[in-house]
Every structure is written in C-alpha cells, then in structure tokens.
Structure prediction request, 91 residues.
Amino acid sequence: MSEQVKTPKTTEELISGLRRQIRSVEARAMAEDIDTDPGLVLAELLSMAREMEEAAGRVARDMHTTRGTSWGDIGFNVGISKQGAFNRWGR
Prediction:
C-alpha cells in the first residue's frame, strides 16, 4: 500500500515541508552512496537560494506597496534595519 502525501493546509505547513525537503537533499548530497554528483546538487541548491531571494524581494515589495508596510517593519521582521530592508528589496 502506498503512503498518501498530506497536502499542506497552511503557509506554515508548506514552509515546514520545504525546509524538510531541503534538509533531505542536503543529507543525500553528503551520503557516500549518492546517485547524483554532489557538485550538481550544490549548484542546484545555490540556484534555489537565488530563487528564494528573488521571491523574498517580491513579497517585501508587495508588503510595502500593496499593504503599506513600512520598510522599518519589514526589516524588523527579518532582523535587519529599515535601510537594510530598503537597500535589499526596495529598488
């Protein structure tokens, strides 16, 4: 009998699942019996990191422009200054 995959119901569940998958890919890349070149896995992880940064920028800009969230509040949410948030995502 095959295991049924649970569909995430909340954003938090979706993010938690992504984190688990990333850790799983990391573990496979470091395993002795990996079926894929670890260099390829590294390159893909870095590519995904760039995509995540781009997505974070889109969310931050949407928070600011559509929802009226200040750059100070956006920065506070991620532990950086108002200027840091603006320099990273506001341009």
About this structure: Residues 11-89 form one domain. The chain has a mean pLDDT of 90.
